[in-house]
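Lab channel / #folding
Pinned by the channel admin:
"Please post every new chain as: sequence first, then the structure tokens as a reply. Keep commentary short and put observations after the output so the thread stays searchable."

First post following the new format, from NK:
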Amino acid sequence: MPLTTPSLATVTPGEPVTAQGWNALVTGLAALYEAVIALGGRSLEVAVAADADDDPTTTALRAVTDAQVTAEPLGDGRPVHAVPPFGARTSYLLVGLTDGDWRVHVEGPGYGAEVRTVTLPHPGPLAVALTRSGVVVPDLFNVGRQAGLDLLRGKGIDANLVVDTTGREISRSSVPPESTSAPILAQLPPAGTVVPTGMGQVRLTVASALRRDPVVTMPSLVGLNLAEAAQVLERLGLQLGTSQIRDIRAE
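Reply from TO:
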């Protein structure tokens, strides 16, 4: 009920208050009470939780702190959005509620939406358990590239892009031998994110493979003619490059 300013009458000292004036005073006070009550003084805590890990058989729950919680009155009034967890608080806080029936909507990324009907005043927090609508991305840090890909495939997640630290894309089907066990250094989305089953995609960054080029010890070619020097280099797998003949006696 909105607050409105009533018509106010003034009287002079000693002038009696008429019945009409008194009734207007009482009516105004009643309207004020109703308006203040309509503002709502009730609050409700909503504890949102979900499975603690990817094992559907476990009973362990963890608090979900990135959900959206909204209370909708079953009657006149506007929806109220909850204050998210902050500091040491792990539950959501709905404030400015009135006595009566409310419908509480809870939605979280990677989880199915839940709806609860509650009557205020309500004893204690309202507990809402969310059901995962996908799979949890595992922590792949320092896991070998091939082992990480196998782990993702086992969960129905596709690694749609694999690059090394230089930005070079690495094939997922034809893996270079030096990149098979390269440790995973970064992943997107991060570990713990819920992605749709069978449709989830992850991007990985792995360590660059170290390539060791073969080396030879350069022999001394002093005293050999050009043909002899070329033969020595060829036996070592080297090729004679540009050569220049100079008569040092003329210098």
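NK: The first helix runs from residue 19 to 39.
TO: also worth noting, The chain has three helices and 13 strands.
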